[in-house]
Design goal:
8% strand, two-stranded antiparallel sheet, mainly alpha, 257 residues
Length: 257
């Protein structure tokens, strides 16, 4: 595990039509969560055909309602919607993680995911990691509401477990999210805080793989350090003891003459 100890720390629309109901024009739902739906509307989403989604390298199979998928995400609308029926009733998401997709399915049918606060301490960090992978999946599926839930649970999981992500968890954030991602802001602030903590053994070198993998990470961490330090100005390095910038033989001090 690469985690580190924690110190103190659009509306989506559906255009799919089910012929079991009288046609009244395009079926547009105002909410991206089924928790806000009327019973009749939810029943409509659970009508119609079933499609197969295969997730991960092992191609774990889920059988899900086509209408519900199309209502939840424009990604699925594009593949399974009425304009795309020729693509068939199967879809492979080989770059997704099955444990993250499990949470998506729970949200799809129940409008919520598990609350990390209700889990025993030893399970909080693992759940936080799963929520990080769920966040990446939400970026792919264009699920803003679920993405916000995922990062909320990730932050709570870290806080309640007393752990923060290490470089092994931070690098995938920069590999899988766009430059404007709030998840990048979160992990860069965590890294900055760890580096600046005088009681922490974590230094900038701890995050070498992140710095080497993304120049954006380096910029974000430096910006976070500047903001967190109150923009306190360092001493002018062109003034003061010149010996600090000299090369010395065998540790001998400079000749001051």
């Amino acid at each position: 595990m690469g985690h580190l100890p924690f110190r103190n720390f659009t509306n989506l629309h559906i255009h799919w039509y089910d012929f079991a109901y009288e046609r009244k024009g395009p079926f547009r739902m105002a909410s991206s969560s089924v928790r806000d739906l009327a019973a009749k509307n939810f029943a409509e989403l659970l009508s119609g055909s079933i499609v197969e989604v295969y997730v991960g390298d092992a191609k774990r199979q889920w059988s899900l309602h086509r209408n519900l998928l199309c209502h939840a995400s424009p990604f699925f609308e594009e593949h399974f919607g009425v304009e795309s029926k020729k693509k068939g009733d199967k879809l492979e998401l080989t770059n997704a993680e099955p444990d993250a997709f499990e949470l998506f399915v729970k949200w799809l049918y129940q409008g919520k995911i598990d609350d990390v606060s209700e889990m025993p301490t030893e399970k909080k960090w693992d759940y936080a990691e799963t929520c990080q992978k769920l966040y990446f999946l939400c970026d792919q599926l264009a699920l803003q509401q679920l993405k916000n839930l995922a990062i909320d649970e990730f932050r709570k999981g870290c806080n309640q477990a007393g752990l923060v992500p290490g470089p092994e968890e931070m690098k995938p954030v920069y590999d899988n999210t766009p430059p404007s991602s709030p998840f990048r802001t979160l992990v860069s602030k965590i890294a900055a805080r760890q580096i600046m903590d005088p009681e922490s053994e974590v230094g900038a070198g701890t995050y070498r793989m992140c710095f080497e993998g993304s120049s954006d990470f380096a910029v974000d961490v430096i910006d976070a350090i500047r903001a967190g330090s109150g923009s306190k100005l360092f001493e002018d390095p062109t003034e003061g003891d010149k010996c600090l910038y000299h090369v010395h033989d065998n540790g001998k001090p400079c000749d001051r003459g």
